[in-house]
Amino acid sequence: MYMFIGLGNPGKEYEGTRHNIGFAIVDSLEQLLERSSGWKAGKGEYYYAKGKLAGEDVLLAKPITYMNLSGRAVRDILAFFKEGISDLVVICDDIAIPLGQLRLRSGGSDGGHNGLSSIIYELGTDEFARLRFGVGADFYPGEQAKYVLSKFKASESKLVDEMIIAAKNGCLEIVRSGISRAMNTINMKPKPLS
Length: 194
Known about the structure:
Strand order of the largest sheet: 2-3-4-1-5-7-6
Mean pLDDT: 93
Radius of gyration: 15 Å
CATH architecture: 3-Layer(aba) Sandwich
Order of helices and strands: EHEEEHEEHEHHH
Shape: globular
């Protein structure tokens, strides 16, 4: 069973921010689920929804630990649903990737992302898939935290909406074809802002 875990921060003040794009993508993905359970409180610090995607059982989850402690929730999700990391896909923002680009990898470092760092620490491995959503790096030195907690500009909204659809379709492709094949369609080139 594929598990798509979108990272973000709980609370209204964080809705629509760059750091919460993982939440936005799993919310969008939930609308595609057949026989969705709807969002429910989990046995830990997370919400989850279950259903079918392309005929396969799928679990969606949103940790509510705040970004820096995401690993606690991911560890609890894997333990409760008795799943391994081979079907885990973590969805998060990435300032090292230009806005307009998605990148799927089957493992690797945290790339400076606190949520990924926490997951790697709690699971004791970096060998899990992650779908990273480029949010760009349009900030002055020392203002990274302020930037990722800011909302997308109005001029970026059309591209962000298109990228959320592309990410949702990418998750569907993962379920249909697996991680390796899905990389070919998901790892797309940056789109220019229009």
